[in-house]
Amino acid sequence: MIYLIHNQANEYKITYFHDPDSKKVPVQEYMESLDKKDQSKIVKYIDFLQENKGVLDEPYTKHIRGKLRELRIDFAKNRHRILFFTFVGKNIILLHAFLKHTSQTPESEITKALNNYNKVINNPHLYE
């Protein structure tokens, strides 16, 4: 299992969304399906996101909709994307991940992330 959560006082922390219904952890499952080189590159970008308090400009992140942002990890010919938002208590929630094949972020991937976002908002006690 891949867990990146390390947090010191006054530091932002990274948390994986975990579905309260299915008990799945989509971003973690996505990362575990990749080879070690891709995993390492993604971990570096997530660490960079944490170090910068969830605020990175393009080309590292891109605003998608509302509070939803996209972490953009390009490695070799792979274009990994992790949709996330910054939650209360200096908590960056990684909602959904996918391999991008088109120039635009597919609406189906945004919908999955928004569904996960709503589950976080409706269950904030799971992320405090």
Task: Characterise this structure.
With 128 residues, the chain is of the alpha+beta class. It has a single domain, classed as RelE-like (YaeB-like fold, 2-Layer Sandwich), CATH 3.30.2310.20. It is built from 3 helices and 5 strands; from the N terminus they run βααββββα. The protein has a 5-stranded mixed beta sheet. It is globular, with a radius of gyration of 14 Å.
Give a short summary of the structure:
The chain has 128 residues and is of the alpha+beta class.
Describe the secondary structure blueprint for this structure.
Blueprint: E1 13-16, H1 26-32, H2 36-51, E2 61-65, E3 68-75, E4 78-87, E5 91-99, H3 107-122
Parallel strand pairs: 1-5
Antiparallel strand pairs: 2-3, 3-4, 4-5
